[in-house]
Amino acid sequence: MQQVQPVIAGQPGSEAANSQLSPSNSAPAIIFEHVTKRFPGSTLAAVDDVSLEVESGTLVVLFGPSGCGKTTLMKTVNRLHEHDSGRILVEGREARSFKVTDLRRRIGYVIQSTGLFPHMTVAKNIATVPEMLGWDKERVDKRIDDLLDLIGLPPQEYRERYPAQLSGGQQQRVGLARAMAADPSIMLMDEPFAAIDNITRRRLQDELLSIQSKVRKTILFVTHDVEEAIRLADKIVVMRQGKVVQYDTPLHILTRPADGFVTDLMGAEDVLRRLSLLSVESVMLPPPAQPMSGVGTAPTLNPTDSLRDALNDLLSSDSPVLMVEDAGGHVIGTLDLNAIKRATHGEDM
Amino acid sequence: MFDYLFNNFDRVWPRLVEHLLISGISLAIAIVIALPLGLLLNRVSWLTTPVLSVLGIIYTIPSFAMFAFLIPFTGIGAEPAIVALTLYALVVLVRNTMVAFNSVDPAVKEAARGMGMSSRQILWRIEIPLALPIIVAGMRIGALATIGLTTIAAWIGAGGLGQILKDGINNSPKLYAGVICIAGIAILTDLIFRLLSRSVRVPA
């Protein structure tokens, strides 16, 4: 998180880049229109009349209990599952109008068990799609090195290794690099970190966010881990029995769950309880070095107020940031949604 | 012990060549049939039980009985031997090839498919290289069994080193020569397949 923050916060128009509350206005990268998928021999539809728009450059998490259809929905995009009815538009073009292998080569795909080819070196694994697309060797080689640098594995050391010679976390990084090899604008990630230990998973999540802040892919990310969903998502699709129950920002899903199912699933009550237990002081950010424009209208808080109060103030005002003032009226810190979000995971500041 | 072999090498050599030919041809035919058949069983799982059952029954027939059974159809000589040896080798190779393809991690195949490989690309670039170590291991077992069984084929007039054993039953030096040659072929074959399996090994 630490390395992500400056990138987002330092950019002009960071509000647009941070699509938590203001999704970008560009054309949707993926559109589902009344998509239904029924498996043979099953009475219930695995995906039942789903309509969604996934904004370009956002990370959307598909979330729900097992069997809710989240993976099936994701796989209709690259047609590993063919939908029975409805339409899926990928960057404005109907998925079915592509030659299926062409469609898949345009979409990055990462799965839980990495699916790395054990008989090929790291470099060969990453080169798979670029080579199928007919890139020349020089371009492929450069791309391999760039990607290994991006995922933090020094190319000289890791190019010629085989998957079995990597740790689980490294394998998953290579899986990510391989999916990004041909620079697809859309990536599908099917519980990529589920089989990885907690500490490594947290680090991989940070890295994904960091990489995403640089590359701004459209990512569909399947998980059944609440913390992961909240941590990564620009928006979350909550699914149950093939239907979309709620599609909103993590904060809204936590604070305005559509129904009791969403509340239970997200453990929303628990998070809010945690918010009410945490003080503003414990998570606030340093005060701005220079006066920010518009802070005059920003609501103010006491250091000892709870994060629940802070959240309440943030939601009921137009300001993206709160000022924390001491008893003497001096600004001693600021607080924004990200800070609160991090706090809900019990992270140290 | 080696005297007979060295002194009569011109008489042993043709038998050795016969032996290698009978074993080699049988194994080659079996491989040509077994690889696609094993792959078919991997793809069409309901065929597995009937095909493997039939092969299993064949395998229970003692080799002598099998050779004798084939004589009315093929006469005596190398032909019935090659038919029988091919059938025996098939049992090992078909089952093994199927197991080899079944053992390819479904996640690896799904990743390949999701990345846009065609079925043919998945077969040649992913499944065959990953199945090959097990397939080669099966070939090694099949080859050694075939070399051994070829010996028995001499009793239906197929020739080969079994002929030397047959003639040498009351002639120890000759018997030794036959045994040494058969053992030598077997050891050499084993070595070749070990080297082969090293070259197709998947790093682990």
Overview of the molecule:
- With 349 residues, chain A is α/β, with parallel strands linked by helices.
- Chain A has 16 helices and 13 strands.
- In chain A, helix 9 links the parallel strand 7 and strand 8 (218-223).
- In chain A, helix 6 packs across helix 8 (168-180).
- Chain B has 204 residues and is an all-alpha fold.
- In chain B, 82% of the residues lie in helices and 0% in strands.
- Chain A binds chain B through residues 78, 80, 100-106, 109, 111-119, 128-129, 132, 162, 164-165, 175, 178-179, 188, and chain B through 105, 107-108, 110-118, 121, 126, 129-130, 202-204.
Précis, in short:
The complex is a heterodimer of chains A (349) and B (204). Helix content of chain A is 39%, strand content 21%.
Set down the secondary structure blueprint.
The complex is a heterodimer of chains A (349) and B (204).
Chain A: H1 4-10, H2 14-17, E1 28-37, E2 47-55, E3 59-63, H3 70-77, E4 85-90, E5 93-94, H4 100-105, E6 107-111, H5 122-132, H6 137-150, H7 155-158, H8 168-180, E7 186-190, H9 198-215, E8 218-223, H10 226-232, E9 235-240, E10 243-248, H11 250-255, H12 260-266, H13 268-277, H14 280-283, E11 300-301, H15 307-316, E12 321-325, E13 331-336, H16 337-344
Parallel strand pairs in A: 3-8, 3-9, 6-7, 7-8, 11-12
Antiparallel strand pairs in A: 1-2, 1-4, 4-5, 9-10, 12-13
Chain B: H1 3-7, H2 9-43, H3 48-60, H4 63-74, H5 78-102, H6 106-114, H7 119-152, H8 161-167, H9 172-199
Rounded radius of gyration of chain B (Å): 20 Å
Question: What letter string, H or E per element, gives the SSE order of chain B?
Answer: HHHHHHHHH
The number of helical segments of chain B is 9
Number of strands of chain B: 0
> What about the largest sheet of chain B?
none
Notable features of this structure?
heterodimer; A: 349 residues; alpha/beta; six-stranded mixed beta sheet; four-stranded antiparallel beta sheet; globular; disordered N terminus; B: 204 residues; mainly alpha; 9 helices
